[in-house]
Design goal:
It comes from Brevundimonas subvibrioides. This protein has 263 residues and is an alpha/beta fold. It is built from 11 helices and 6 strands. The structure holds uracil.
């Protein structure tokens, strides 16, 4: 069936409207875990199909990451292992280096953001720019200074500060999971939709998820912790009225930690 030019124009105009509104990806109604990659079966198929070679690379890169991450028994060793990893495509996209973590690696709270930005890339530490300073202020006001360790779903700055792709997050995930395993935090704070997607493997909207406790449980190692998704502090720089919601989520975090520490 041929579409009428009028219909095509209407669809184009609707797509342009969505793009202007920041909608840059289409999802199915049911959540799809794109990080699982159906590894062994896909690997076999892709070996025979040259056109989908990147998936094979991704499977190999993820297993390299897992191998490196599992070899690290301290957070310091894990940061070094991540810095030696070359399997994330972001490594060759202009980032100066690996930005792994900041704070006390024995802290009871693990904070996970999206990806390093320009200032983090220059400093080699996460959340040192404007958004990070705002986050630090909120953490301090909640009495949590010194009780957090901060990292990201990927450790290299994406070009143009774009959102990391699910594939980039998936190859870095073994390092994030190992950090979770080594720290065994009492609670985790996820900053923004991309962090929630990367860690909780969900396409649910951040507005719906924020303010609600979820559970993050590792498949191996029997490690779990309550997880609070909230809005990204960079969003608050443009939408200061949303600070109220993030503040409420951070207070929830402080209360949860208090409860866990006094349990
Ligand atoms: N935004 C993030 O998500 N992470 C950083 O480290 C800095 C800004």
């Amino acid at each position: 069936m041929n579409a009428e030019p009028r219909d095509i124009a209407a669809v184009e105009s609707l797509l342009a409207f969505w793009a202007d509104a920041g909608v840059d990806a289409c999802f199915e109604e049911a959540a799809v875990d794109r990080t699982i990659v159906v590894a062994p079966a896909l690997k076999a198929v892709t070996r025979a199909t040259a056109s989908v070679t990147p998936v094979v690379d991704m499977v190999d890169a993820t297993s390299d990451a897992r191998h490196l991450a599992h070899g690290a028994d301290t957070m310091e060793a894990l940061a070094e292992a991540a810095a030696s990893f070359k399997g994330c495509e972001l490594v060759g996209m202009g980032a100066r280096g690996c930005v792994f973590g900041r704070g006390d690696p024995h802290a009871p709270i693990l904070i996970i953001g999206e990806a390093p930005g320009a200032e983090e890339d220059a400093a080699g530490e996460p959340f040192v720019g404007k958004a990070g300073k705002l986050l630090d202020k909120m953490i301090a006001a909640a009495g949590l200074t010194g009780k957090v360790y901060t990292t990201n779903t990927v450790f290299w700055r994406p070009p143009g500060n774009r959102t990391p792709t699910p594939q980039e997050q998936a190859v870095c995930a073994p390092f994030v999971e190992r950090a979770f395993f080594l720290m065994k935090p009492k609670a985790v704070l996820l900053l923004g939709a991309a962090a929630a997607r990367g860690v909780l493997k969900t396409d649910e909207g951040i507005m719906r998820m924020r303010g609600q406790w979820r559970e993050w449980r590792l498949a191996e190692g029997d490690v779990s912790a309550p997880v609070m998704p909230t809005l990204h502090p960079a969003f608050l720089l443009h939408q200061p009225q949303a600070k109220r919601q993030v503040w409420a989520d951070i207070l929830e975090l402080a209360v949860k930690l208090d409860g866990q520490e006094n349990a």
